[in-house]
Amino acid sequence: MTEPSGAHAGPRPLLSLRNINMTFGGVKALKNVSFDVLPGEVHCLAGENGSGKSTLIKIITGVYRPEPGAVIDYDGQTYAQMSPVTAQNGGIQVIWQDLALFPEMTVAENIAFQTLLGRWPRFVNYGHMREIAIRALKKLGVTLDVDLPLKDFPIAQRQIVAIARALVGEAKIVFMDEPTASLTQSETDHLLEIVRTLSTSGVAVVFVSHRLAEVLEISSRLTVLRDGALVGVYPTEGLTQSRITELMTGRTFDQHVRAKTRDANPVVLEVKNLTRPGQFEDVSFTVRKGETLGITGLLGAGRTEIALSLFGMSKPQSGEIFLDGKPVRFSSNREAIEAGVAYLSEDRLSLGLIQPQSIADNLVIASLDGIRSGGLLSDERKQRLVAQWIADLGVKIGKQTDAISTLSGGNQQRIAIAKWLATDPKLLILDAPTVGVDVGARAGIFEIVAKLAESGLAIILISDEVPEVYFNADRVLHMAGGRISGAFDPRQCTLKDIEAAVYA
């Protein structure tokens, strides 16, 4: 068993925090936390959603003021609290999980706009901005059209833009909050190489990721928070993913293959030779009642594109879709919902949920007909429906009227699932349902998925994380280049067999 490393002998920390306390509405978000980062170190900050990681980062960057008694030593200076200007000028950069980008602006403007900030107005040199953006992207080994608006790019490439923007500044320390959540394996490999390059050049990187394999691969030390308190600081050498999970949650998880035979169950969805040029081609498969069909592959393989066609968001050029044996051709997602198809988007923050609106409004927005009374929306029915699904899915909330943004990632995802379950679907499509969700919450989500399948719901589980489909699906399809390139039964193959096919 790896024990906390305690005080770190060696070079003086670039950043050192002591006695950090923070309270929100009577709830202790941080409890006497200490934290330090060495120059050029790759350090992982780990913990479940709600453990205090984001609060700690916001204190370091001056967004929040810690309670009196806090001591922040940074780059040879001591502060009772940081300010955003001090942090920015001192070379502290953050890539937030929600990216904080401007969809209507070009890629170049998103990457280089901070170079225009200052006390005095100045003329915008677009050519110089383009040069800055191209250089930053080159460091990541990526080529993008920097003149196009950001909204034209999928979420994976927007993540790359956010990373490139952080690298433009003269950073001494970079916090990366779930930077690889939406990246392909090759893009992730590129990023990890960039992190190593930054570390070699003396830039410290604090890596926040729920992908524990990356944590072990890239970082030298690990600081673990649980319920706002420091669990310990550990060298990553000798740690395992299961041990990190135990440290983060205080409990152990038994991963096992859930696959069962569903051949006797009736077919809910049948797809025959479905084609949409440039996205997917000649795709055929079935999903039976109570079955969870996993679809994996690298981003760009056509997985999400198939889901969007099944949900009526895009029309296939050819092929057939049958629901309960009857041919369907949806012209809108409204028609798909009415037919019993539900789709949980991979992009929870901008497509899955409406962040400023309440928990209750987000949950009922897809099933308003079910809460009507006399032609008007009934508050009583709404509250009853929301209470039912919150109880059924074990969602932890304050009040139904609280903004959905007040919930942790795992609880937000449960509300997003509940939103679609309230429509009483026949088929539930889960597209990357654990993006930005911590290990403990992931286990809870997959328990929900298993119960839904046992109740008879047909489920398509899409993920680029092979272990998710291997352990939680009855069958697994591998997509590559827009085609189904392989099929696997988790009971008759190993995890490495599927990973070898996906990452070949």
From TrEMBL:
<feature type="domain" description="ABC transporter">
    <location>
        <begin position="15"/>
        <end position="252"/>
    </location>
</feature>
<dbReference type="InterPro" id="IPR017871">
    <property type="entry name" value="ABC_transporter-like_CS"/>
</dbReference>
<dbReference type="GO" id="GO:0005524">
    <property type="term" value="F:ATP binding"/>
</dbReference>
<keyword id="KW-0762">Sugar transport</keyword>
<dbReference type="InterPro" id="IPR050107">
    <property type="entry name" value="ABC_carbohydrate_import_ATPase"/>
</dbReference>
<dbReference type="InterPro" id="IPR003593">
    <property type="entry name" value="AAA+_ATPase"/>
</dbReference>
<protein>
    <submittedName>
        <fullName>Lipase</fullName>
    </submittedName>
</protein>
<feature type="domain" description="ABC transporter">
    <location>
        <begin position="259"/>
        <end position="504"/>
    </location>
</feature>
<keyword id="KW-0813">Transport</keyword>
<dbReference type="Pfam" id="PF00005">
    <property type="entry name" value="ABC_tran"/>
</dbReference>
<keyword id="KW-0472">Membrane</keyword>
<keyword id="KW-0677">Repeat</keyword>
<dbReference type="GO" id="GO:0016887">
    <property type="term" value="F:ATP hydrolysis activity"/>
</dbReference>
<keyword id="KW-0547">Nucleotide-binding</keyword>
<keyword id="KW-1003">Cell membrane</keyword>
<dbReference type="InterPro" id="IPR003439">
    <property type="entry name" value="ABC_transporter-like_ATP-bd"/>
</dbReference>
<comment type="similarity">
    <text>Belongs to the ABC transporter superfamily.</text>
</comment>
<keyword id="KW-1278">Translocase</keyword>
<keyword id="KW-0067">ATP-binding</keyword>
<dbReference type="InterPro" id="IPR027417">
    <property type="entry name" value="P-loop_NTPase"/>
</dbReference>
